[in-house]
Write a structure and sequence with these properties.
With 256 residues, this protein is mainly alpha-helical. The chain contains ten helices and two strands. The mean pLDDT is 82.
Length: 256
């Protein structure tokens, strides 16, 4: 998820982009809590929750292909956890999905539930980051009472992790251009360890240069933005729409 692509999407104009960052941040947290609180076998309800984040992605002009690509990048970590649940509980259950009925196990339902929750919550997170300038998001966090040092660390992490990634890519490209044959496992590990050490040293040197440049420009620990944070009528409508959506799904879950 390169920051230039995210910044490009966050600078677009849409009804979602024009919402206050605090409103979108609180809404994303509340929505995530509701999704995670669903039962381990409530797959049908989780599918219903998916309507909200994907609708926001469409309204916000965020390509669904981009969103699914980012989800796939981090999916292996969750897939390992989800697949392991297949072996924990093999109790047979009958599953009905509309007119379809088939047999399954509790482990299978939990596996599908974990993956579904991951996709829905990741879609909500991508919708938040891709429709909000990161500076505005940090400013919103600070306004909501998040510790200043944590806001500062998040800002540094977001901006400068990509410098480290670019540096690592340059090293890998240079190594690939100079590698003429397979060196064997032992020498490959030795070369990789040397590259990691060189990357750590260069990152420390880069951090020193960044710190010097920031001090020379008068950085005082605050991230200043030109955007005026002000709650508007659209923020109220957005909050009410989310509350109505969650209430409707809660009622639907009680009926089902």
């Amino acid at each position: 998820m390169h920051h230039t692509r995210i910044d490009y999407l966050a600078c677009k104009d849409s009804p979602v982009h024009r919402l206050d960052s605090r409103t979108k941040l609180i809404a994303a947290v509340v929505f995530t809590v509701f999704v995670i609180s669903q039962g381990q076998t409530a797959v049908s309800m989780i599918v219903c929750y998916a309507v909200w984040p994907f609708a926001l992605l469409i309204v916000g002009g965020v390509p669904l292909r981009f969103a699914f690509k980012q989800i796939l990048i981090v999916s292996p970590f969750v897939a390992v956890l989800a697949l392991s649940s297949l072996f924990y509980d093999r109790t047979a259950v009958d599953v009905s999905f509309g007119p379809l009925r088939f047999g399954a196990t509790m482990g299978m339902l939990r596996c599908v539930s974990i993956i579904a929750k991951f996709i829905v919550t990741m879609a909500a997170l991508i919708g938040l980051v891709a429709t909000t300038r990161f500076g505005d998001l940090l400013n919103g966090m600070a306004k909501l009472g998040m510790p200043k040092i944590l806001v500062m660390q998040l800002g540094f992490l977001y901006r400068y992790i990509f410098l480290l990634i670019d540096r690592a890519e340059h090293m890998l490209r240079a190594r690939a251009g100079r590698k003429l044959r397979n060196l064997g496992m032992k020498r490959e590990l030795k070369t990789a360890s040397s590259m990691v050490g060189s990357l750590c040293l260069s990152s420390l040197d880069m951090a020193g240069r960044v710190n010097t440049a920031m001090q020379a420009r008068g950085f005082d620990g605050e991230f200043h933005t030109l955007t005026e944070m002000r709650l508007a009528r659209n923020d109220l409508f957005y909050s009410l729409a989310l509350a109505a959506f969650l209430a409707a799904l809660g009622f639907l879950g009680g009926v089902i």
